[in-house]
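Task: sequence design from structure.
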């Protein structure tokens, strides 16, 4: 922890060693921005689906 640059905002004090309140709402994030998950659709062949553990054909119901 000795190699800190002047632009480093961390203090080096372990916050878990002191009994403090949770951070205020304005301390949690510098700016408020919603989290947006990145979703990508991929095409898988039947062989790849079977390799991943998915069955391509539905199993018949036995009464």
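Answer:
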């Amino acid at each position: 922890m000795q190699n800190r640059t002047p632009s480093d905002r961390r203090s080096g004090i372990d916050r878990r060693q002191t009994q403090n309140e949770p951070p205020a709402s304005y301390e949690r994030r510098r700016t408020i921005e919603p989290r947006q998950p990145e979703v990508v659709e991929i095409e898988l062949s039947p062989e790849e689906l079977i390799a991943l553990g998915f069955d391509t054909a539905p199993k018949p119901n036995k009464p």
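Residues 46 and 56 are 7 Å apart (CA to CA).
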